[in-house]
Design goal:
Elements (H helix, E strand, L loop, with lengths): L19 E5 L4 E4 L6 E3 L2 H8 L9 E3 L10 H7 L5 E3 L19 E3 L19 E3 L11 H8 L5 E3 L15 H14 L5 E2 L2 E2 L2 H11 L3 H5 L6 H5 L6 H11 L2 H5 L3
Parallel strand pairs: 4-5, 5-6, 6-7, 7-8, 8-9
Antiparallel strand pairs: 1-2, 2-3, 9-10
Helix pairs in contact: 4-5, 4-8
């Protein structure tokens, strides 16, 4: 592992007890200081990845789900990052995704049900095609989506269901908020084929380009509005909502969600 490329400092001790303090692959255990139990068995699937040969389809998959992890352990990174393509870290307590920068061949990442917020940015993952961040703590799309687009420009499948920034009927969002969210995300990722639980249609893609074809500042800012003033002011979506209201009153608008 190249120390120059490793921006994540594993040597810094946490200011408080964050749970997992060691990983012992040889003995197939995690040393966990969160509970009174000193050791928690690692899922056998993890060890099988290392022992399986390169021709085995499962050799490129690694599952760390439900392991009560507060971070991605360094030992895991060192042992598996060179060949893992599918990584499942769902249902943990992970808030820092920077160690993923070492997974150069990662194409699928499942990170559901982690306390990931909009302040947690993914490192560059140019090969990533599938990303699930359902039921995390992402409360704002701006500037998080822009950073995600830079880090993962080739996403084909993205799911953000259950986040405050992904309004839906199930979390109190209105139809217009949901449609606005969906079209905005589609406009940011040209290669995206599937968003949340629905496939992206050509009508949705065309409408997203029509609504968001101009830069954000040009669409909602005044001619003399400076970037600093814009950043300190609230964003109004009345123009977008009025367009969506018109669309919903027409057959084409209703077809956007079919």
């Amino acid at each position: 592992m190249d120390d120059k490329e490793d921006k994540y400092d594993y040597s810094v001790s946490p200011k408080y007890d964050e749970g997992i303090i060691a990983v012992d692959i040889a003995n197939n255990v995690l040393v966990d200081s969160v509970t009174t139990m000193p050791q928690t068995a690692i899922s056998s699937n993890i060890i099988e990845v290392e022992e399986s040969n390169g021709k085995d389809e499962d050799s490129s998959k690694l599952t760390l789900a439900y392991e009560r992890l507060y971070e991605i352990p360094r030992t895991i990174v060192e042992k598996f990052s060179n060949y893992v393509q599918y990584l499942d870290i769902s249902h943990n307590k992970i808030t820092n995704l920077e160690p993923l920068v070492h997974f150069k061949h990662l194409t699928s990442l499942i990170a559901d049900d982690n306390p990931v917020t909009e302040n947690c940015f993914l490192p560059p993952l140019p090969k990533l095609e599938l990303l699930w961040l359902n039921y995390c703590k992402i409360a704002s799309l701006y500037p998080w989506v822009g950073k995600l687009k830079e880090s993962c420009p080739n996403l084909q499948y993205l799911s953000l269901m259950g986040n405050p920034a992904a309004p839906s009927y199930f979390n109190g969002g209105t139809f217009y908020e949901y449609l606005q969210y969906r079209l905005f995300i589609i406009s940011q990722f040209p290669s995206l084929n599937h968003l949340d639980d629905r496939k992206i249609t050509e009508d949705q893609r065309e409408e997203s380009h029509r609504l968001y074809k101009r830069p954000l500042l040009q669409r909602i800012g005044r001619p003399n509005t400076s970037i600093s003033n814009f950043m300190n002011s609230s964003v109004s979506w009345s123009n977008v909502q009025s367009k969506l209201t018109f669309l919903w009153g027409n057959r084409e608008g209703r077809n956007l969600l079919i």
